[in-house]
């Protein structure tokens, strides 16, 4: 189900939502859960589907996007102005995701990769070489590239007013990553 055309996948999930929720009941609290935050135009479930609709073909990325905010309903608080916040939702989402994937008998290596990205999907990534190197050391190139793709999907599913600037930030970090890898591998522009 999670391979093939992403538009077809999102359409299938929407059409079969009641059945989908029976298989993955942990997703039910996301449906209709308002975020009450200017950066989020949609409820948690619609945001997830909007984000999923732009995911690349990587199975890990698609599953991370599906589960990345599963913990939000369990972490919701409002500040004195009525703005919604979800402090710690990355860790809560990672715990729930690990439980779901365990129940579904996912391979341990795949499960660990997915859970790691769910945990860190909302981390504040800085636009500098030091930060990029830190993340490369922590998770490796492939996993860090997935994290950037998850971030791109996540921000694309938020408030349309802020999408362009947030996607541009992800792309700038991706460019820094490419630069760091070229420098660290000893390549120069002349090699291309």
UniProtKB/TrEMBL annotation:
InterPro entries: HD_domain, tRNA_CCA-adding_enzyme. GO terms for molecular function: nucleotide binding. Residues 58-126 form the HD domain. Coiled coil: none annotated. Keywords: Nucleotide-binding. It comes from the Bacteria. This is HD domain-containing protein. It comes from Enterocloster citroniae.
């Amino acid at each position: 189900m999670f391979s093939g055309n992403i538009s077809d996948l999102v359409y299938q999930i929407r059409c079969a939502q009641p059945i989908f929720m029976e298989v993955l009941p942990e997703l039910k609290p996301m449906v209709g859960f308002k975020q009450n935050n200017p950066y989020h135009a949609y409820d948690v479930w619609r945001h997830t589907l909007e984000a999923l609709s732009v995911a690349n073909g990587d199975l890990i990325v698609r599953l991370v996007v599906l589960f990345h905010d599963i913990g939000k309903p369990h972490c919701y608080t409002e500040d004195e102005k009525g703005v919604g916040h979800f402090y710690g939702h990355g860790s809560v989402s990672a715990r729930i995701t690990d439980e779901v994937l365990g129940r579904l008998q996912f391979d341990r290596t795949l499960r660990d990769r997915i859970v790691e990205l769910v945990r860190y999907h909302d981390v504040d990534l800085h636009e500098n070489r030091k930060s990029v190197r830190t993340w490369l050391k922590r998770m490796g190139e492939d996993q860090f590239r997935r994290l950037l793709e998850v971030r791109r999907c996540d921000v694309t599913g938020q408030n349309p007013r802020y999408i362009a600037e947030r996607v541009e930030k992800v792309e700038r970090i991706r460019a820094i990553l490419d630069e760091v890898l070229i420098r660290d591998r000893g390549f120069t522009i002349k090699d291309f």
